[in-house]
Write a structure and sequence with these properties.
globular; Arc Repressor Mutant, subunit A
């Protein structure tokens, strides 16, 4: 029996996923959450086998949730569940410990297989994601552009764009205030930005937060 936590900030998505999974005798839904911080807490409390995790969660995004869950609960696998299929997002998900990557557009067809494979500690990627990874691996240059943000810097951008102060960001990420300020300076330099407003516009344009 695979124990599953569903994490998505849209109630209609959670309800749709629950309907699909409840008809499968090998799955048990142990919790539902709508933001990243609650997801981490519920995961620690329930210790699911699989977290079906939306990338664009509020408070703490899916990449940071993945990193923290995999560090605290190495037996829990993460299946990213998202509309984003960019190379950078997929790669960062894998680097942070995700076992699988499922596009929401493929859920009706692939959800059962994806959770079954991830629960068995096997990777799963839908066809479009696999094709993107192969295509981008072949075509990408030897080095990344210097402007590329790390997954931690992307998390800082999201939190700032959501209106959190540096002290609040430090508390969410469990780091010191100086560390947050260092990340912020690095982000502004990499992106050639000069104001918080410009940073918010960058976050919206790159879908780190919803407008």
């Amino acid at each position: 029996m695979a124990r599953i936590l569903i994490a998505d900030d849209h109630a209609v998505v959670r309800a749709g996923v629950r309907r699909i999974l409840e008809g499968h005798p090998s799955f048990e839904i142990v919790a539902e959450t709508a933001d990243g911080k609650t997801t981490i807490n519920k995961a620690i409390e329930t210790k699911p086998d699989v977290i079906l995790l939306d990338y664009s969660l509020p408070v703490i995004n899916g990449l940071e949730v993945t990193r923290q869950v995999r560090r605290r609960l190495p037996g829990t696998e993460v299946l990213l569940f998202t509309v984003h299929d960019s190379e950078s997002t997929i790669e960062e998900a894998l680097q942070n410990g995700a076992r699988g990557y499922l596009l929401k557009t493929d859920a009706a067809r692939d959800l059962i297989e994806a959770i079954t494979r991830v629960a068995a500690h096997r990777p799963f990627f839908t066809n479009k994601v696999t094709e993107n990874l192969l295509r981008n691996f072949v075509s990408r240059p030897q080095q990344r552009p210097m402007s590329t943000l790390t997954s931690r810097e992307r998390m800082v951008v999201q939190l700032i764009a959501e209106g959190h102060s540096s002290k609040q960001v430090a508390k969410v990420l469990q780091v010191g205030l100086k560390t947050v300020e260092t990340h912020r300076r690095s982000i502004m330099l990499k992106l050639n930005l000069s104001s918080s407003a410009a940073l918010v516009r960058y976050a919206v344009r790159n879908k780190l937060v919803e407008p």
